[in-house]
Amino acid sequence: MRASEAPVRRQVLGLDGLRGLAALYVVLFHCWLYAFPGYPDSSAPRVLDVLMFGRIAAVFFLVLSGFSLAISPARHGWRSGGVAQFLRRRAWRILPPYWAALALSLVISLFVVPASHYGPPDGSSLLVYGLVLQDVFFAPTPNGAFWSIGVEAELYLLFPLILLVRRRFSAAAAVACVTLPVIVRGLLAPGSNPVEGDNWLAPHLAPVFVAGVVGAGIVVASERVRRLPWGWFAVLAALPVLALGFVQGSVWTVRHYFWIDLAIAPAMTMLIAAIATGQPAFLVRLLTTRPLQRLGDFSYSLYLIHLPIVLVVIRRVAPHFVAPGLHTFCFTLLLGLPVSVLTAWLFSQIFELPFKRNRSWKSLMAQSRPSTTVPEEQNQPPVPEATPSRGKSPSARVT
Q1: What is the pTM of this model?
Q2: Cα–Cα distance, 44 to 95 (Å, whole number)
Q3: Which long-range contacts (CB under 8 A, 24 or more apart) does 339-342 make?
Q4: What is the distance between the alpha carbons of residues 104 and 98, in angstroms, rounded to a whole number?
Q5: For residues 69 and 216, what is the distance between their CA atoms, to the nearest angstrom?
Q6: pLDDT tens for residues 324-360?
Q7: pLDDT digits over 168-223, tens only?
């Protein structure tokens, strides 16, 4: 069967479940991060080291974002349907909940608990974060999780060009165009491990986003390609990275995220490809269960607003009830985690899902008239986590 004759499914099952689990991990990461000082060599029990890799979750979000965005272009000859239309749809989907979360984060950071050790946000914070320029310019952050929104916004601008290279040349060319400069930069850096700053992470993370874009070709691949054991390929690709991290230790892994990001992206892409082709069946069934589907529905809202809630619990509530360290961490899991999830669900009902289900103000307004309401198809992601250096949450920084 030729690729063009492959069966076409309008919706790829399991991706929302993956998105929900990734967002939940980010919440757990921040519970761990702020309960135990000293990142990355924190005072946390070693058994909890599995929670310290928030940056890896952010990378997964970017791979998943590239994959999800490229599904429709892959089905239409790698054409986006117009640059202006694509950017308008992305802005419609991403910005309303982001701006609402920005307003909430500003209030909490100014009047309840600072978002970073650089002090409360100021006028520059409103300007830089309001225009989603936080990966380009520094300003005191109102929310340490917002760093990746800036990165993703820049990658959206790159997306039509990626599709053009994929369409005119090949998948390998698209990957090479963004990956080779990153590798060269890394090899030329002192000690072959460049120290990342707080800004301009998009060029470094572009290869993981492109990996997802290229991986979306699985939805139009021939049946022979779709039947390949992509799940096992993902395991084999991840094993060397996991083995290296185990041997060198978690602190070394965090301090070498520059290379770890690039090394783990192929395994992530193949995992998503496996889910997209319905394998392994038990995992797809798990990801499509109602709880995970629902979690995936508001995962973007959870990502956007969980961190201020976690900080309030750890720095304002927990000290009145429990001792620092492990007791604070457990207290935050019991209180901060469910409050974050519930608040994110409520937030999504107002600021995310209406824009996710409708693609215009006309359609949005028509929701109040059931007889004329036609919910629009949705299946797009974002993103997703990391760190605070200079006011950002520590998983974004390589030191």
Answers
A1: 0.88
A2: 36
A3: 339/309, 339/313, 340/27, 340/302, 340/305, 340/306, 340/309, 340/310, 341/27, 341/295, 341/302
A4: 10
A5: 8
A6: 999 999 999 999 999 999 999 999 999 999 988 887 7
A7: 999 999 999 999 999 999 999 887 888 777 789 999 999 999 999 999 999 999 99
